[in-house]
Amino acid sequence: MGQEKVHISQIQFEGNKRTKEKTMLRELTFVVGDSILISDLSNVVEENRQRLQNTNLFSKVESNIMDWTADNRVDIQFTLREQWYLTGYTIFDLADRNFNVWWVEQNRRLDRVDYGFRIKHDNLTGNADEITAALTLGYTRRAELEYNIPAINKDRTLGLHTKIFFSRKREINFTTLANKFEFYSDDDFQLRNLIGELGLVYRKKLDSYHGLQLEFHQNQSSDTLSRFLNPDFFLADRSQQRFLTLAYTFTIDKRKQRPYAKQGWYFETVLRKHGLGIFKDLDALTLSTTIAKYFELSPKVSLETVGKVHFFFNRDQQPYYNSRALGLKPDFLSGYELYVVDGMDFSYLKTSLRYQFVDWEWDFKMIKLFQKMRLFPMPLQVYLTINNDVGYVNDPYYADLNPLSNTFLWGGGIGIDIVAYYDKIFQIQYSFNHLLESGIFLHFKHRF
């Protein structure tokens, strides 16, 4: 009986008002006409239910095996509850590296707040394509327009990414002392950034991706900033920096549940060439590799391990502006949220032991507008975590006044992770570091 097979007669979807069927079929490991061992059928259907959940297009996905005939033919049905794809909201964001820096070092100053509006659609044409437009005023002036579509060809193997970004800042960190940013501000804008991106993503297999991206960067600083405060800001007293970047990314994503995974693994490597010969302002070749492994130790206990290595192939001195390592999203260590560690090369290993003590759906039937917007029911999970992070940054040029560079770093602590809608993560952590400093830190994540 274990070797008998069942044949897929039909795949049905219910509840997808916008999402096109071909978009969902692209995520499945089987098609109509395939044969599956009867002993494997339940696991295969559950795996594909989770694959649809991982698209972040649906707040809930249920599966059902239907119409099993005497000659072993079945229909597979997926019942879907779509997310509310269109979001338009005001921006009230912090200009600092993270919430903790703003709260502790900047004394919760409201003049360091960015405000504006953002409009985003996560499924514009039903093909899982995302478009984002944003305008930010306040501490930082910023405008951006981004569009991503995962499939532009008939076979749905080729995707497109485009983005244009512009910003202006009156205050800028011009150097790093004691692993803290030193700022200079003026009534005139001190830094202007223009970035344009165009990329292609090739996805022949379900869980592997090849990306090729071309970027144009133009950065313009004030003379005071780059010639007097820090001549190494762009190097050689330059007040302008222009360069092209060509990046190749290879990704394998075998996580069972994204982004807060409990089983599976993730691999990504990125090779970037900054400076393609057209402009002479930057010349660097870097390799960055991330590996994550997830262990489900029991139904409620899981272990996350994430390691990353970043390396410069050419060892020439790089501009201060381009020498970032740890301290900026997404690369930070627990307990070092108030510090920035600049450098050329870095590596870290982060581990988190997690115990789930809440897993339920929060419904709010009293307000029918929430039901129409599909904001509720809201899946909600809460975890108790024990965190342990280690890392190292190699800084051969700017480490003299920054003691955390070229030093073994260790931090950890305990925390609470709150996961809403499977992909929105709020973390409260009590962390400490090797300097015996401790504190409560907040983090916000959205997808990985």
**Distance from first to last alpha carbon:** 41 Å
Order of helical and strand elements: EHEHEEEHEEEEEEEEHEEEEEHEEEE
Instruction: List segments where confidence is low: pLDDT < 50 over at least 5 consecutive residues.
Output: none
What's the rounded overall pLDDT mean? Answer: 89
Largest sheet: 16 strands, antiparallel
Strand order of the largest sheet: 5-6-7-8-9-12-13-14-15-16-17-18-19-20-21-22
Radius of gyration: 24 Å
Helical fraction: under 10%
Under CATH, the homologous superfamily of the largest domain reads membrane protein fhac: a member of the omp85/tpsb transporter family
What is the strand content?
over 45%
**What do we call the CATH topology of the largest domain?**
Porin
Counting helices, strands and paired strands, the structural category is mainly beta
Task: List how many beta strands DSSP finds.
Answer: 22
